[in-house]
């Protein structure tokens, strides 16, 4: 995708030479980027995220994830309009998602459509291997390794748990390090290989979807990769869950293997480790609790 040298250049290229920025309005939500509604001279508006100039790779990888989800033809995402630089900042322009009341059976529709996304072909999203992604990307502000692997359990060990444990090493004493090594060595005792790989949102909690003007769920802020659909499903349960209708509709559309309830904490260990590394020791005991369960 072309990267523009200024916001004004991007706006003119997309909307025409006569269109300019009238004003920007801060939008709440998120703690990594500055978020604004960009109001244009023709009365329309777009959504803009900005960060330091050197952090443009955040936006490149977010755009890749949004493109991938859109390609499945299942759940909706904002349209990627442009990215580039503006002075000391980098920016990502997306279509503006207007809010509305939820449609009846919102959670049922959401659960069904997520299951359809997880069932969609995903071979085009990586050039070799069965699991991973075309490029490394980010989970929040944390770096996410997506090196291709043929085995899901090997991928989850090497590209998910192991890098996070290494970053969090200062939190663990010798005894915990030995237990971590045991867990990593025995990962295939706990996880299963899926029947087929799935494209995952990668960071699917309640803050990473919104209700669009059509009253349906729209996905935002992906940390996309190809993996086991259970990893996305587990993440939806980490911070409170999406409601019984969501899970019933998901399971009516896509099978969830026996023993999922015994695996979901291990999938969510990845996210808790990422939070430990990003936000500090308040997440240590949640990590310890899961280690106590598995080894």
CATH superfamily of the largest domain: Aminoglycoside phosphotransferase (APH), C-terminal lobe
* Poorly predicted tracts of residues: none
Distance between the termini: 46 Å
> Treating each run of at least 4 consecutive H or I residues as one helix, how many helices?
10
CATH class of the largest domain: Alpha Beta
- Name the shape in a single word: globular
What would you call the quaternary organization? single chain
Radius of gyration: 20 Å
Strand content: 15-25%
CATH topology of the largest domain: Aminoglycoside 3'-phosphotransferase, Chain: A, domain 2
Total beta-strand segments: 12
**How confident overall, as mean pLDDT?**
96
CATH architecture of the largest domain: Alpha-Beta Complex
Q: In which range does the helix fraction lie? A: 40-55%
Highlighted features:
about 300 residues; alpha+beta; Phosphorylase Kinase, domain 1; Aminoglycoside 3'-phosphotransferase, Chain: A, domain 2; 2 domains; 6-stranded mixed beta sheet; two-stranded antiparallel ribbon; about 40% helix; about 20% strand; globular
Structure write-up:
With about 300 residues, this protein is of the alpha+beta class. The protein folds into 2 domains: about 90 residues, Phosphorylase Kinase, domain 1, CATH 3.30.200.20; about 190 residues, Aminoglycoside 3'-phosphotransferase, Chain: A, domain 2, CATH 3.90.1200. Helix content is about 40%, strand content about 20%. The chain has a 6-stranded mixed sheet with strand order 1-5-6-4-3-2. A two-stranded antiparallel sheet has the order 7-8. The chain is globular, with a radius of gyration of 20 Å.
């Amino acid at each position: 995708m072309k990267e523009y040298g200024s916001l004004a250049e991007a706006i003119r290229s997309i909307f025409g030479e006569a269109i300019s920025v009238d004003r920007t309005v801060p939008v709440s939500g998120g703690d990594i980027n500055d978020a604004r509604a960009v109001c244009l001279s023709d009365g329309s508006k777009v959504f803009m995220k900005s960060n330091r100039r050197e952090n443009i790779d955040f936006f490149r990888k977010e755009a890749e994830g949004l493109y991938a989800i859109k390609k499945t033809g299942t759940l909706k995402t904002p349209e990627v309009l442009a990215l580039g630089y503006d002075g000391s900042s980098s920016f990502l322009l997306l279509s503006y998602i207007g809010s509305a009341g939820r449609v009846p059976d919102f959670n049922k529709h959401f659960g069904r459509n997520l299951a359809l996304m997880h069932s969609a072909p995903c071979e085009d999203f990586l050039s070799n291997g069965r699991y991973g992604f075309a490029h490394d990307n980010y989970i929040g502000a944390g770096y996410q390794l997506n090196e291709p692997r043929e085995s899901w359990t090997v991928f989850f060990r090497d590209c998910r748990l192991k890098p996070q444990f290494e970053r969090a090493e200062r939190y663990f004493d010798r005894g915990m390090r030995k237990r971590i090594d045991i867990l990593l060595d025995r990962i295939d005792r706990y996880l299963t290989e899926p029947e087929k790989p799935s494209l995952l949102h990668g960071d699917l909690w309640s803050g990473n979807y919104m209700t669009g003007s059509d009253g349906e769920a729209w996905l935002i802020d992906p940390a996309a990769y190809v993996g086991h659909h259970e990893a996305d499903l587990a993440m939806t349960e980490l911070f409170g869950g999406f409601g019984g209708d969501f899970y019933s509709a998901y399971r009516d559309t896509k099978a969830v293997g026996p023993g999922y309830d015994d695996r979901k904490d291990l999938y969510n260990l990845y996210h808790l480790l990422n939070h430990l590394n990003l936000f500090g020791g308040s997440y240590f005991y949640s990590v310890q609790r899961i280690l106590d369960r598995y080894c």
